[in-house]
Amino acid sequence: MAVPEFQTFLLPLLAATGDGQEHRLRDLIPSLADTLNLTDEDRAQRLSSGAQSVAENRVYLAGTYLRKAGLLSSPARGVVVITTLCSIIRSTSRGPSIKTIFFSIWPTLRSLSRTNSRKSTTTTSKMAARSRSDETRVLPTRPPT
Question: What is the reported pTM?
Fold first, then answer.
């Protein structure tokens, strides 16, 4: 079995932080791997850069998306705690389902997507304009040495 996509880590990460205490993401990785029944080979799988394991990467990515959605907060680097918003969502249902989580964060995700899309479009437009101006600029020639 391969390490699942980061989305698979969303609910286990919320469940692991559901006690309202601060948790280091690094410390949660083994228990999340156990929850998802990752094999030793899965846990040992590294990113192509070799910088970290694929499982670590997926946990950190899940944490990033949950923070951006307002369901986790980060009082310190690498530390997460469940937010009041997420506590309310959890208390109004019989435990969070992916649909509940998804629909609660949908507006946030859409705004993030729009923001990233605008930044990408703006950056692309600026690069294209710069490229056109570079094409029309006459570069000075240096005298031969």
Answer: 0.65
